[in-house]
Amino acid sequence: MDTDQVRATFLEFQRERGHAILERASLVPHDDPTTLFTGSGMQPLLAYLEGADHPDGPRLADSQPCLRSRDIEDVGDDRHTTFFEMLGNWSLGDYGKEEQLRSVWELLVVRLGLDPSRLYVSCFGGDKEYGLPRDDESAAVWGELFGAAGIDAPVADLGTLARAGEVGSDGARICFYGRKNWWCRGDSMDAMPIGDPGGTDSEMFYLFADIPHDPAYGAHCHPNCDCGRYIEIGNSDFMSYQRTADGFAPLPRHNVDFGGGLERTAAAVIDSPDIFRTSLLWPIVQRLEELSGARYEDETYAFRVVADHLRGATFLAVDGVVPSNKAQGYVMRRLIRRAMRTAHTLGLDEDFVGGLVPTVAALYRATYPEVEERHERVVDVLSAEETKFRRTLDRGLAHVRTYVGQTVTGADLFAWKDTYGFPVELSLEEVRTEGLTLDPGWHDQLDDLVREQRERSRAATKKEHL
Ligand SMILES: [Zn+2]
After folding, report:
1. Which of 96, 135, 282, 403 has the most crowded Cβ, counting Cβ within 10 A?
2. pTM of the complete model
């Protein structure tokens, strides 16, 4: 089963369960100035989760393209991307916890055929400070499902993520964590504004038993460990509480919000820990192999960065974003420029960005035909940025290489940016790749120069106005 079939199976399953299937929303939220991109399936539905009636009824589902710019630095491992699709289903005051968990099981085990002995789950372990009980109800449903499949399901109470890394889950099937399994908007349950909805959640993980635990992530492994042995494939949020002045009160209407990573689920289905091997990413990697002559096995990190960033930039262009120095345009510019700089390590120093767009368009022909329909404009937008940055990149790279054997200071980084327009982020990557020495005080030196420059320009503006 490929990624398109996983998506189709999910949507058909939700349709059978009486869900209305929604069209995808744009990557750029229309009337939400607080966030740059659609970063989850629930984001466009927030008003309905907060109480408004949805015209299509209380059961909704979709597959929503998402972009998370804060994940840019994480791209390069086997499971992070900036652009991805999120499978979602929602109950607006309709079905509850038990039906949701049973349906997730049916989806993963029966419809998608995942081996249930590779599945692990987490549940909310309770919170003493707020007097919130442990979510034994979810644990009981999971226990019964595993039991019916003939799978032993030991339970462990792991507490915080830090503690979980110290003690490990020791093969437990159902793991209680503390606030890791509390869903809310914003950073933490303490920071929730009064009135905001929140609740417990329950995640599903898929085990890649051949990947050994890496002690760099903690003494012992557990489902939320970042070593790559477990991959999170989906999460059911139970929005059933509301923040009050001194704690939490039950919400009058309970909602369910499920989000599952399409590419990660597809990776589990083909039993590959590397999501870049799934059918909506691998052809992009293969096209890059053709264009560069390099091999994925030899330059895995670079292939992943370029494939992810240019797929994301393509979808941004489809949704009307153009590279610029602010907001969405800035992130798009960063994706394209980072992809170009990284492609340089694959020997791709000629214009190539436009050559990848038809590959992306072909992959999404059946699902998002707008990619193909707008592909000429997309090529124009991406190629214009590529041409603009190509000269900067070539001059900058040549200049940085003249520093071999010398120490690079904050003043050098500032000058490269000021004179060559070479972004500091790229300079630092080049310093690393070329093995140059960086002055330990570079950060403060750079900050001082940037501040001085800002003050100078302010003084100049004042003069003009006088
Ligand atoms: Zn681990």
Report:
1. 135
2. 0.89
